[in-house]
Structures are given as C-alpha cells and as structure tokens.
Design a protein that fits this description.
The complex is a heterodimer of chains A (about 600) and B (about 325). With about 600 residues, chain A is mostly helical. Chain A contains 28 helices and eight strands. In chain B, a hairpin with a 4-residue loop joins strand 16 and strand 17. The N and C termini of chain B lie close together (about 10 Å). Classes of the chains: A mainly alpha (about 600), B alpha/beta (about 325). Chains A and B meet through helix 27 of A and strand 15 of B.
C-alpha cells in the first residue's frame, strides 16, 4: 500500500470522496421528492424493456453527444472530446493499471499510473496502451482548446451568444480546464525522467529543460489539486449535469414526466442542464428584442440557486423554440409553468357559470370545439361549418354560445386548480355527448385535449381532419396551382404536438405550397401567443414582424396558418393576405 | 402669374381653390385622382349638428369651382411632388409634369378597413356593416337587415380602428361619436319602432351643438347608451348578430342580439396622403402629415411652399376641414406675396 502512496494524491482523494458523498446524498434526496405517480411509474417500468433504449440513449447523448453533433460538428466534437475522451481515459487507464500492476492497489493508482509505474514494458501490450492513453489525452486537450477559442469567438461552434456564467461556474470551468494540461505536464516530466511516455508525453518530455523529482512532484500535485477542486465544485456547479443527465435519461425513458408542481424529478432536470446556452440563440426574445437573462438556461439556473424572480418566470412566450433545440431535451415549458404557480389568487367566483352549461346528446355527431380564440376570428369556424356541411357530417358546435375555455391559457399562467375545473367540466360535456370524435380549430385547445385531458374519444386538429377528408376522397377540392402560399407552423401545433405534415398536405392539395427559410421545428413564434405577460405590444410586434418576414421571403400570394392567434397577429400587421388552412379549403370546395 | 397646385378635390381642396382663385394673376391646378370630386361627402345623407342635407353642401362646393382660373384635373393622380429651383414640380400617374409656385396637400383620409377587426365579423356576417354603409342606407331611405326585413334592433359600436392599440391607431377619430348619435336619431325618425344602442368607451361631444344632440337623442329619441366595448360578434340561426360585451358601468358581462351591428370606423390617412407625406418627409408614425407647430404654423410643412390642410393632417370633422382650408389660404397668400 505504502508503495503506492504519496501525499500529493490527497487532494484528489478528498475530491473523489466528497464528490460521491454529495452526489449520492443529493440523488437520494431528490428521488425521495418524486411524487407518488412518478414513483409508481418507475416501479412499474424498471424491469421492462424500456431499460434498453435508456442505456442506448445514455451512450449516445451523455457520452457521444449526438444531438450537439447534429446541431454543429465543431460544438459536438468539443463536447464529445471532453466527455467521451475523459471517460475513455478513465476506463482505459483502469485497464492499464490492472494489467500493469498486479495484486491489490489503491484506487488512485489508475489516475496517477505513470507516476507509480515507471516501467512501460510490464505486460505484452503495455506500449500500445501508452500510445492510446496519449492519444486520448490529445483528444481531450483538443476539446479544451476549442472550448478556449469558443470563449473568445463563439461563432466557431455556430453560436452567436453564449451563456454568461456565474463566478462559481467559471471557477469550476478553470479547474476543469487545468486538469488536462497539468496531466500532460506531469506525465511529460515523468517521461523525461523515466522514458515511460508515449508519442505525446515523451516528445514533450524530451524537450523539457527542467525535469527533476521536485518539478515532477509539484506537477503531479497540481494535477491532483485540479482534480480535487473540480470534483468538490462539481455538485454545486453546472458540471453536475455530467452524472445527472444519465439519471434523467433513465427516468425519462422509464416514463417519468414533469407534473404541475415542482418535484424531485424537476431537481434532476435542473441539474441536468449543462448551461450550454444553445437556448439563447433560439429564443425570439433574445433574437428580436435583445432581452437577456430570461432564457431557459438562466431560468433553470435561477431556480437551482433559489434566486428566481417572478418577472423572469413570466417573461417567456412559451413557444418552446428553445426546448426543440435543447440537447438534453429538458421539459422546459413544464418547469416554466411550475414556477408561475398562482394558487394563492382567489378566483372562485369567476367560474360559477360552469354549472349553468348543460350537456348535449351528440351521438353520431362530431364534436366541434372552435376555441375561444377562434371566436375572435369567426372566419375559421364559418369555414369549418361549411366543410362539415359539404361532407354531410353532422356536428355539435360545442362552444358556440356557452364558451368554456379548454384551460390551457390558465395553466400557462400558473392557474392550475382553475384549469382543472374547466377541464373537468369540458370532459363531462364531451363524455355525455356520446360522440366519438372531437375536432378543434385551435392548437392551444388541441394540445390541451391531447395532453392534459384524458378523453375517451379521438381528438383531431382541423388540419388533420381536413387532410383525412381529402385523402379519403370525401371532400373534393379544386387545386389552384397558380396560388403561391406559405405556411406558418403555430408553436402549439408544430413543436407542441408534432403536427407538421397534415397542414402541408392540405395546402398542397388546394394551392402551391412554398417553403420558408425557417419552418417546422425551427418555425418562428408569431409573438402573440398567450405565454408572455411581461413584454409590451410593440415588442410582440417586433417578434411578429420577424416571423412575417420569414413567411414573405418568397413573395407568396397568401400566408396560411392553422392557429387563430397567429392569424390575428399577422392580419394586424400587414396588407398581405392571411388565412387559416380551413378558410382556404372552404373556398376551394367546388 | 402664380400657379398653385392643390392635391385632392375634397372639401378642403375646393374651398382653398375657390378663395385662392379670387386673387388676380393666379392659376389653380386642382388634382383629383378619381373621376369625381367630393367622393366622401357624396356618401353622406345629413350633416351634424344641423341635419342639413349633404347634397346641398356638395352643390355649393361644386359651384365654387366655376372659375376660369381653376383648372380641375380629374382622374389625375399625383405621384410625385419635388422642389425645384424655388418652385415645385409635380408628376401624375401618366408621367405628365406640372410646375407650381406653391403646393397645397388636401389628400384627406380613408376609413379604417373593418376586416382588420375580424372578431367583429365584418365581411363574414351580412348583418355587420360600417358607419359608411349605414350612411348610404339612410341616404337611400331604406334600412333593412341581413334577411331583408325591417330591423328591430340596431347596435352601434364606437372606436373601431380608433383609440385601439391593437390595430395600431392610438388616436381618436373625433367624428364617430357624434356620427353615431346622428345616425341613431335618423334611424329613429325613419323607423320609429327600432331600438338603437350605442356601445362606447366614452362619448366625446366636443363640438358646438353636439352635447345637445346627445341629450336630445336620449330624451326625445330614446337612443340607449352602453359603456363597454364589444369583444366578439357571432351569427345566430335566424341571421341576427349576437354580440358579447361588458357593461362596464354595471360591471357585468352582457349578451345581446341585434339585426344590424354598425361599426363606427375611424379615419386613417388615405393612400395618397401616406405616399406624399412619406415622399416629402412630413409623415408622422401613422402616415398623417406633420406641420411646423400646432398653434401658429399648422398649415406649413418643413419645406417652404408645401402646405397641408384638412384630414391629411389628422382626423377632422367636415367643418374643421373647411376652416383649416381657409387658414391654409392665408399662409399661402403670405408665402406668394
């Protein structure tokens, strides 16, 4: 034992022990914060096949960083080289130590192997291991070098803006960056003295003018210190994501979801954020308005460090543009809603009217739910009524007179109990109607009905419904190939519910659909969604204008969308013609 | 010999032309992009506050154009106005050039396009009309609802496209309040059985005789007033319009169905106003013309020799427009002296 001990390993050992102690303590505490439903899901699925894809995703994301690669090769390489490279250094180093030093030995030997084992011919392939280890170290160092350049010129990795980190994160970053140069230096000095280095360390060692036991010792001490400091700061800094992402992927794959209240699962999500800042460039508040400090990266950080201000929680359009770019796939919108909780407000009297709404027997009919916002764009429900009549479909216009909101706008603002009241009433009305299909014209309602309600009947957005009618031949439409249209993906329908193709299919069958520079997952928010209660009208208009510019880039004759909010936003702005997909279809009917 | 170009043969343009032409050695070029003069005024039935017939005023104004030195150029749309060697060069849509010593812009307003407030159902439900449509109906003496019957209930909604942040028009259009009062009275005279409601934010009875009209509308004609904006309109099965609003004096939501919903559309700068004010660097954020100052130099622009009058400056009533035209004449005469 004493043969493999030197006092310089102490900082490293303290670091490792504290790191694991703190992490285990945190992880257990967070797990205990899971609610009953989340725990039941884990218990149910832990021994199921869902285990396998979880492991696959952990390898692909936590080690290889596939999603970051997809976004930008250099950025992906940077993350993968540091994460995967370091991981390999540890694993390969462990095997090297196992093969190179027989019998029992303390755990730090693998980390400081060259210091304790000067002979590099102790086993058959030892020389290969030495070269591989040098190669891996170079791999990691190249990542650190890119990270360093990124700090000065972030566009090299395809980022316009990068996160402004708190002091402590910067401190942790410096300690991380120090680890590998110190390792290189230590191994080079040792190589200079004992000729046990590889292509990298030996080359550097040979040109080092200084190499004696004192220098060697100081170098290894610095390496150990860098490791120790990084390990201790890791659980409190953004680097907690390294381990946490693994757990998060695992829980998520088992089926755990965010709920209305902050839970232990939320804690895992908060710590899984690496503060890479990819969400900043995605955010329309940053892009169009130059608003800083509200983006998901800062929002999550502020919750984690318990310094979140209401204004930051409220200053978000909930367009989920950032969520679609997030390499960790955090449920950013759900966490935002949790932080907007306004349960202390008494709004009981606002909902008394619910009792006065009577059910309707709509057996053999389709339930049509236009949505509150569609009442402000009466052209849309008019078009839908015409379409129902054309195909001879009997329908019940559920919210024609007694409009009950689907509850989602309330939920977005943190009125969870009130939203639940509305959901309960709507569910009751829908169930008692005995209908088998619900069609809605509003993506907000659609997302609500499909995700927050547990309806026993099928729910369709009108674009899906119309696409099916056209495909099955029930609805005959005339195609005007000379009419050039662009399509705006509403946030709630596209990123929210993944409906991108159906509206495009419909538009292709009635007109000539053009592509726009930013569409589908990358579509721009119209600025008028119900998520943000902080920004002013003029600011909303700026966001809207950017989206419009994108839609008008190819000079279309008509802009189409599938959301009453987006339609209103665009019609307010321009003389250009804006229509809902349903309206265009109703005009194309023979 | 002095030549004055006046752009727009509405009330302001004609009034200014007729007075300027009275001077000797003066020639007036009066441009009008449409085939006829006084288009907006010709739609009107009666004028507030005295209920005189608009056609009488049209006749008087038209007669003022019968002077040899007023050259009415109908169908000529002025496309550019540029200063040249202390004088002015104008060009019409066909490319013909004209020179003038001074230019007076009286390019006027257009009404707000009610389609832009889709929630009110204009263009979707036949029972939703604008105040201009109503004026024409009153002029014809025949007011029918969407299905061709005599209406029983007519609702007016104020401030459509005025004082409305969302449509981008923050200003008050000034004339809509009293126009609704006038039209409601006329309707009660025409159809004594009809119920009339006016939904308002606040009623601005700013002109001489307006307040008296408002009082009379309640006492003598039974016009009813509700303080509240209408949030949405929908059709009912029998072709009526159902409106949702809040009576903000009582503090309760309100639903009402009516045969006709009349949208009191506000004023916006006409296309010609927008184009020329932008060209001459005197456009405000809406496209109305800005003047040197609102007190003493309210007809002058920053460019000497270019004058403005009437509702191309801001929403203005007919009487104010005529007065403003006369005040512009004084300034033009001073400039040309």
């Amino acid at each position: 034992m004493s043969k493999y001990f030197s006092p310089f390993v102490i900082p490293f050992c303290i670091g490792v022990v504290l790191l694991f102690a703190i992490c285990i303590w945190k992880y257990i505490r967070w797990y205990r914060g899971f609610d009953r439903l989340q725990r039941a899901i884990i218990k149910k699925n832990i021994l199921s096949w869902k285990f396998l894809p979880a492991i696959w995703e952990i390898v692909m994301e936590s080690l290889l960083h596939r999603r970051i690669f997809k976004r930008n090769l250099v950025l992906g390489y940077m993350h993968a080289s540091i994460a995967f490279g370091w991981f390999l250094l540890i694993v390969v180093g462990f095997f090297e130590a196992e093969l190179g030093i027989h019998g029992s030995k303390p755990f730090w030997v693998a980390i400081f192997y060259r210091f304790f084992q000067h002979d590099h011919n102790t086993f058959a392939s030892a020389a290969i291991f030495t070269q591989v280890m040098d190669g891996l170290l170079l791999f990691v160092l190249s990542g650190i070098a890119i990270a360093f350049v990124k700090m000065i010129y972030s566009r090299i990795v395809g980022m316009k803006k990068v996160t402004k980190h708190v002091i402590f994160d910067r401190f942790a970053k410096v300690s991380l960056w120090c680890i590998f140069p110190f390792r290189l230096l230590s191994e080079s000095v040792t190589a200079a003295m004992y000729h046990n280095g590889g292509f990298l360390t030996q080359t550097i060692g040979d040109i080092l003018p200084f190499a004696n036991v004192y220098v060697e010792y100081i170098c290894w001490l610095l390496y150990s210190l860098a490791l120790g400091v990084f390990f201790v700061s890791m659980p409190f800094s953004r680097y907690m994501h390294i381990f946490t992402e693994v757990f998060l992927i695992f829980f998520r794959r088992l089926g755990v979801k965010e709920n209305e209240q902050k839970s232990g699962y939320t804690m895992y999500e908060l710590s899984a954020c690496s503060r890479c800042g990819i969400c900043i460039d995605a955010c329309p508040l940053n892009k169009q308005l130059d608003i800083k400090g509200v983006q998901s990266v800062y929002f999550l950080r502020d919750i984690r460090y318990k310094m979140l201000k209401d204004e930051i929680a409220d200053n978000c359009l909930m367009c989920s543009r950032c969520a679609s770019d997030c390499p960790v796939q955090l449920d950013l919108m759900a966490i935002r809603r949790q932080m907007r909780d306004k349960k202390e407000l008494d709004t009981k009297n606002n909902y008394r009217y619910l009792d006065t709404v009577r059910p309707f027997n709509a057996m053999d009919r389709v339930v049509y739910f236009a949505g509150c916002m569609s009442h402000l764009t009466p052209g849309i429900p008019e078009a839908m009524e015409k379409i129902f009549e054309t195909v001879g479909q009997k329908y019940w216009y559920m919210d024609k007179d007694a409009t009950i909101c689907c509850g989602r706008p309330l939920m977005q603002q943190g009125f969870h109990t009130q939203a639940a009241d509305l959901r309960r009433k709507n569910t009751q009305l829908i169930v008692q109607s005995h209908a088998t299909l619900l069609v809605t014209s509003c993506p907000i309602c659609y997302q609500s009905f499909t995700k927050e309600y547990k309806l026993p009947i099928k729910v369709m957005h009108h674009t899906e419904y119309i696409a099916e009618l056209i495909k099955s031949g029930k609805l005959k439409v005339n195609k005007d190939a000379s009419l050039k249209v662009t399509y705006h993906d509403p946030c709630e329908l596209g990123r929210g519910c993944g409906i991108y193709q159906e509206p495009r299919d419909v538009l292709n069958s009635v007109a000539m659909l053009m592509e726009t520079p930013e569409e589908r997952e990358h579509s721009l928010c119209c600025g008028f969604n119900l998520g943000n209660t902080v920004i002013e009208l003029e600011q909303q208009e700026k966001i809207r204008n950017a989206a419009l510019e994108n839609l008008q880039a190819g000079n279309p004759d008509l802009i189409c969308t599938a959301c009453p909010m987006c339609k209103k936003a665009f019609t307010r702005a321009t003389d250009a013609k804006v229509m809902d997909v349903a309206e265009l279809v109703s005009r194309s009917i023979g | 010999m002095k030549t004055i170009a006046i752009i727009g043969a509405g009330p302001a343009g004609i009034e200014a032309a007729s007075i300027l032409a009275a001077k000797e050695e003066t020639e007036i070029l009066l441009f009008e992009k449409s085939a006829s003069t006084l288009d907006n005024l010709r739609d009107k039935a009666f004028l507030f506050p005295d209920f005189s017939a608009a056609d009488d005023l049209v006749e008087i104004l038209e007669a003022k154009l019968n002077r040899d030195n007023i050259k009415l150029l109908s169908g000529k749309e002025v496309k550019s106005v540029t200063e040249q060697d202390g004088g002015w060069q104008l060009q019409d849509a066909e490319g013909t050039s004209y020179t003038a010593d001074a230019v007076l812009m009286t390019t006027g307003y257009k009404v707000f396009d009610a389609h832009r407030k889709e929630e009110l159902g204009y263009g979707i439900y036949p029972g939703v009309i604008t105040s201009i449509d109503m004026e024409k109906k009153i002029k014809e003496g025949k007011v029918l609802n969407a299905v061709g019957d005599t209406p029983k209930k007519i609702v007016f909604l104020q401030c459509v496209g005025s004082r409305d942040e969302k449509s981008g028009n923050h200003y008050c259009s000034k004339v809509c309040c009293v126009t609704a009062v006038k039209q409601a009275i006329e309707l009660r005279k025409l159809l004594p059985e009809v119920e009339t409601y006016i939904f308002y934010m606040d009623l601005r009875m700013w002109g001489g005789g307006f307040e008296e009209m408002y009082r009379e509308s309640q006492e003598k004609y039974g016009v009813r007033y509700v303080r509240g904006r209408i949030s949405e309109a929908a059709s009912t099965y029998d072709g009526k319009i159902q409106i949702k609003s809040e009576d903000t004096l009582v503090g309760l939501p309100l639903k009402m169905s009516a045969d006709l919903l009349v949208l009191m559309v506000g004023m916006e700068p006409s296309e010609g106003t927008k184009m020329l004010t932008r060209q001459c660097n005197c456009a405000d954020s809406y496209g109305f013309a800005t003047t040197m100052n609102p007190h003493l130099r309210d007809n002058e622009t920053a460019q000497p020799g270019l004058f403005v009058a009437g509702s191309c400056k801001r929403p203005m009533s007919l009487n104010d427009t005529l007065t403003d035209a006369r005040s512009a004449v004084v300034k033009i005469a001073e400039y040309l002296r």
